[in-house]
Amino acid sequence: MTLDETDEKILKNLLVDARQSARQLALKLGMSTVTVLSRIKKLEKEKIIKGYTAIIDHEKIGYSLTAIIEIMAKNDKVVDIEDEISKFENVCGVYDITGSTDTIIIAKFKERNELSKFVKGLAAIPNVENTITHVVLNTAKEDFRLS
């Protein structure tokens, strides 16, 4: 599906505030509510809009540790490992990357012992050759919205 300028305007506005109604969005963009609703339904059907969520300050709910973990796999089992890791509750992102590392994980934890247990659990996953864990000291920006 090719996005036109109207689709892009709708998406940008939803990224800023996904709670706004189609009516509010239509008024802001100068188009009919039916047009906005139709466009949103099309974007949802095409899985461009995968869902709606709140942006949470993880630190304020106790997740004060962010870890970036590199994983090296053996036996070309990267996809299997990534599928397994994607199931873990603390994992926010799993990326199949280029370079000497096969996979990067971003995960959040409340306490160091949770991180320690998690990393030890990663090492126990079949075909995980090595892990390198980086603990984030300070978050300058964390926002995956493209706005």
TrEMBL record:
Transmembrane segments: none
Positions of the HTH asnC-type domain: 3-64
Record SMART domains: HTH_ASNC (SM00344)
PROSITE patterns: HTH_ASNC_2 (PS50956)
Domain of life: Archaea
Keyword Transcription regulation part of the UniProt annotation: yes
One Pfam family named in its UniProt record: HTH_AsnC-type
Name of the molecule in the record: AsnC family transcriptional regulator
Single Gene Ontology MF annotation: sequence-specific DNA binding
This protein's UniProt keywords: DNA-binding, Transcription, Transcription regulation
Annotated Gene Ontology cellular component terms: cytosol
KW DNA-binding (keyword) present: yes
GO-annotated biological processes: response to amino acid
